[in-house]
Each structure stands twice: as C-alpha cells, then as structure tokens.
C-alpha cells in the first residue's frame, strides 16, 4: 500500500507541477487556444488562472517534499486535500459547461488525490 501511495503521489506531483507551471507562465489566450480541454479558461480571469496554477505547483511540491525531507510530513495529505478541492472545482466547471467527456479525467484526478489523503491520514500515515 505504501508503494502504491508513493507511485500515485509521484505521478500526481509531476502532473500538477507541469500543469500548474503551464498555467502560471502561459497567457490566458494561449491556454484557451491549446485545445478543447482548456476551454474552461474562458470562464476565468487571467489572474484566477495564474492563481490556480500557483496552487497546483505548491501542492505538487507539498505532495513530495515534506515526506522526503521528513519535515512536517502531515503536509502531504493536506496538499492532496487541496488538490482534491481544486479538482472538485474543476469537475463543477466541467458540469456547468456540459463537458462530460472531459469530466471523467477530472474525476480520476479527484479520486487519486482522495486516495492519497485517505492513505496518508489512515493506514499508511507517516506518524504511525
């Protein structure tokens, strides 16, 4: 179980680090032009998109760094909880925009983040 949690955490960290950095450094217009999966950006201001990206980058760092450095490892499930909340908002946005095909991806990320929260607060916590 610990290995599965580390693998999922690592994959989430990479995905959110790359996705968040993309949102932070790319102008809103280019994000929207990136394809159908990025049309959600039409509903948000440029500042909001950058904020979402910064939160994703911080959460990606928070998923791994506290545990690796053994400094405040309780931040790992809190970072995963933050990502779960971001993905809840993403899913709501997809539902509102009637983008049901893309909703599945958001729900997968939500479930993976929730699994990390559950695993790191429960059976495979760093304090136990």
From TrEMBL:
Membrane topology label: Multi-pass membrane protein
Keyword Repeat tagged: no
Protein name (record): DoxX family protein
Location, primary (coarse class): membrane
Keyword Glycosyltransferase recorded: no
Keywords: Membrane, Transmembrane, Transmembrane helix
Annotated TM spans: 6-26, 47-68, 74-93, 100-121
Record-linked InterPro entries: DoxX
Top-level division of the source organism's lineage: Bacteria
Organism: Streptomyces zaomyceticus
Coiled coil: none
């Amino acid at each position: 179980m610990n290995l599965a949690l580390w693998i999922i955490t690592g994959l989430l960290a990479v995905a959110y680090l790359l996705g968040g950095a993309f949102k932070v450094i790319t102008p809103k217009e280019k994000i929207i032009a990136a394809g159908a999966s990025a049309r959600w950006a039409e509903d948000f201001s440029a500042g909001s998109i950058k904020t979402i990206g910064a939160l994703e980058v911080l959460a990606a760092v928070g998923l791994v760094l506290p545990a690796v450095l053994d400094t405040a490892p309780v931040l790992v499930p809190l970072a995963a909880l933050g990502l779960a909340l971001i993905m809840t908002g993403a899913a709501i946005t997809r539902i509102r925009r009637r983008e049901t095909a893309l909703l599945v991806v958001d729900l997968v990320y939500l479930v993976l983040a929730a699994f990390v929260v559950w695993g790191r607060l429960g059976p495979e916590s760093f304090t136990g």
